[in-house]
Amino acid sequence: MTKLFFATDIHGSDICWSKFLNAGKFYGADVLLLGGDMTGKAVVPFIHQGGKNYRVTLLEQVFEISTDDELQDMIKRVRSRGYYPYLTNPDEIAELEKSPERVSQIFAQEVLKVVQQWMELADKKLDGTDMKVYCCPGNDDMEEVDALVRSSRRVVLAEGQVTPLDGVHEMIASGWSNRTPWDTHREEDEDQLALRYEAMICQLRDPRNAIFNIHVPPFRSSLDEAPELDKDLRPKMAGQALKPVGSTALRKAIEQTQPLLGLHGHIHEGRGATRIGKTLCINPGSMYEQGTLLGAIVNLGKNKIENYVLTTG
Amino acid sequence: MTNLFVRKATGLVRSWSVFDAFVYALFSINLITLGLYSFSQMYYFGGGLIPALIVSALFIFFEVVVYAALIAVMPRSGGDYVWQSRILGGAVGFILAVTGWWFILWLWVPLYGDMFRHIVLVPLLGVLGARDAALWFAGTQNGAFTASMLTLMIVSIFIALGMRTYARIQKFSFYGGMLGLLLVIMLLLTGSPDAFRAGLERNAVELFGAQPGVYEATAALGSNAGAALPFVGGGLGLIFLTLPYLVFFNLWPNWGATLYGEVRGATDFKRNILGMGSALAVTTLLGILLLYAISKTIGWDFYVQAGGAWWNHVWGLTEDAPALPVWPYPALFASFLTTNRLLQFLVLALMSLWWFGWSGTVFLSSTRVIFAAAFDRLLPEKVAEVDERTGTPIYALLMMVLPSVVVAYLFSYNIASFQSLTLCSTLVIAVTYLGTTIAAILLPYRKPDLYKASPIAKYNVFGIPLITVAGLIFGGFLVFLLYEWILDPNALYGIGYSINEAGYKNGTSIIYMLANYALAALIYFGSRAARRREGIDLDKVHAEIPVE
């Protein structure tokens, strides 16, 4: 029996990454799986005011920093929410406001710097253990992330691969999603997703014992319920109106293949578990901004799930 | 100057509309259903209703601050269950959440049913000429039970339709209900006491078969019942003693809280305060306006006496049946000021939307808690199953509906004095709120890193975190309410074990509430033991993974 721990959508949170690396020991898991969207969504400028003084606006509150200790504390605070601190000055900020390309470069630079640090931390922490760790970047993660994951000695990039987890269970993985209103890095039409899934499914030795580690949840699975948005990306009915936004191609693939387990993320509000035919599908959800690692522990048996539980770590 | 750069990433949405949040919070503290129902039952209190409304709103504003602050620190977490679990532990979180958001809702079903018959069925059937059916619903136990069953059916349909559709029903009900309330207030403000008295005599006889002289007879029965509730005045002490009854109506603005928001901050905190707070303020002001209009034309004394005459009989305190054989519904009274049956029907139909836009809330929150408990493996996986064809959570719904049928039966036929349990519906939820409030008070100290990195970290009062200060005020208010309900030193509420010799020692109420908590504890500790045998340690499910 293999015990796996799955978490997803940690969006640049150092705390969540550290917890993820420690989850194997904490929960007694044999395998760690990280679903997509490893990278953060915001850069927070630390604007130099002369001397040791910086002005930082975090979550719409202005902080005036005047000592090295305060600076380090604020950097830690910003990183704890998955945002990237960027030390700058008023002149550069004025330039950046006119140059979206330069902002994108800074984003890429900060994102990749942190992913690099994470891989180094994983290599250091997991050396001397037999823990297996697999990552599969998601639609919010730029493609350059893959190369950094590949460079790790202990973290395996699972995107597009059929990966044997033990003698019985194989895993297919993809972080690509169906179209979103945000035009993110890895999204495509449903027919292309279907081809992507089929290319992996046809390589499975025993599809009924397979794990589908697919970032986007299946359509109308209750794991894909997100606030309905208007054309200005404003939640309708104050967020009370939810609608399914999952992948129809994935739903069809699960219905036809009936794998043992589906592991999903993408919709942070969609925490839950459901069955599509015989397949157990799980979305542990995400609370990365609070440094809380939501996850799922699953005990895999032959032809069945021995047991599972969603965690709030 | 730029404070933050965000990139295109999934889930980055703009702020939701404060007006929409206001609408849902306004329906949660529903002036027409909860408000008028409780006002009529409060006929024997000595504190002025208007100052009581204002004082209660002041305290409940701190509830708004507490919940808005918790949402700002832990958005999208699912509410009380997660907040309490994270800060106070899994057992406390589970027991308080399932009792306050699930079990006690079984008792709310016959209350929703009671309001359904008095606000929707009876007035509309009466004005449509179906006198016998109206009186059957209004005055028989079978009618009460049937209204509860119809409520269950309607609410189950809302669940099957899903939150997206129900949110639209609520929005439609808001506009329709507001139009109805405007018409009611206009009718009352333009009417006169004489016109009302004549209209009551004419319509009560024609529509509901009352005997001529219904006005005088109702006033006399009300006086005999001890009708005393003043419009204003009464002294601060008496006003405070009114609050534990009044909060049945207005303790719930947080039910409309919006849990979304990412990479934003203090604005969302303020928006949630604005959404819930404005609903509280507007409802309070509308309440004052409606009560003023009632006092102007119906007459305050008569309004209170009519409530006394009705409930004194329903509660079995007198054998004298009320002269007006239907619940004294102010919108029905207002409709008596016109002789146009179509206008009467229109007013009452629009006012019924206050019930339809609100009733779905009875199960929606419960379903979420049942699902969350199933995902934590404290309930069988099956209960979170959703029927693929209809999208209905059949088993979760059954776990609401089946116990509700039993409780509705006990309530409708008043078995073991079950009708005396009305305020228990509020007490148990107040205990859950107290758990959340304690979690809020402790949050900056128990989870300092989480708090410091939150959008509310800079809000302090004399150096003490705002969430702690607001929590202490609201928590103090809840403790006062619980003291009054449970020990009932002035023999006013009838749901506890009164320390007043003349007071009621309500064994049914105490057993019922304790049974709720015992059942929750049994499920939690039983499930924990069962999962441990399967190799799952539920204590670890809510435990924080070490970071280092």
What does this structure look like?
The complex is a heterodimer of chains A (313) and B (548). Chain A is 29% helix and 28% strand. Chain A has seven helices and 18 strands. In chain A, the strands form four sheets. A six-stranded mixed beta sheet of chain A has the order 8-7-2-1-17-18. In chain A, strand 3 and strand 4 (54-58) form a beta hairpin. In chain A, helix 1 (14-27) packs parallel to helix 4 (100-126) and helix 4 packs parallel to helix 5 (144-150). The longest helix of chain A has 27 residues, at 100-126. Chain A is globular, with a radius of gyration of 20 Å. Chain B contains 21 helices and three strands. In chain B, 58% of the residues are buried. The mean pLDDT of chain B is 92. Chain B has a two-stranded antiparallel ribbon with strand order 2-3. Chain B has 548 residues and is mostly helical. Chain B is 70% helix and 1% strand. The chains are: A alpha/beta (313), B mainly alpha (548). Chains A and B meet through helix 1, strand 3, helix 2, helix 3 and helix 4 of A and strand 1, helix 1, helix 4, helix 8 and helix 12 of B. Strand 3 (42-48) of chain A pairs antiparallel with strand 1 of chain B, so a sheet runs across the interface.
